[in-house]
Every structure is written in C-alpha cells, then in structure tokens.
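**Protein record**
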Amino acid sequence: MKVTVVGSHLCPDTLYALNKLVEAKADIEFKNISASLPDLKIYLKLRDSEAMYEKIKENGGIGIPCFLLEDGTKTLNLDDVLK
C-alpha cells in the first residue's frame, strides 16, 4: 500500500498515523507542512478545494493528517487507510 500523508511533525495525530502506517508496512511519502513551503501549498490546495474540509473549516480545525492513496482516494480517516 502506498500512501501520501499530508501533515506536520508537530501534530500528535500525524505522528500517531505515521507510526501506525509504519507498523502496517505502508509505503509512505510524508508531506510536512511545517517544514516545507511546497508541502504547505499542496495542503492549502487540498483544504481549499476538497469538500471533506468544509466542516473542519467551519469548526476552526486544521484537518491534518490527510491521506492520499495511490488510487486517488483522499481521506482524513486513518481507519479507511488501514483497511
């Protein structure tokens, strides 16, 4: 399983997800929005264009980690990725 994780090394949820994905032996590409402006731009494009972010934005949330699967699926739910 190949998964791109868009998140931050400062976010405990992102770190938890990365650990779980390592345990599941996933092929991980990490886009660290706290350390890379190009990665931040990827995140902002997702957040501005994906419907899954509407409630998160309404509630003042950030919405990380986000998972991008090789089949094109985008989700904020780690359980969906681990299935």
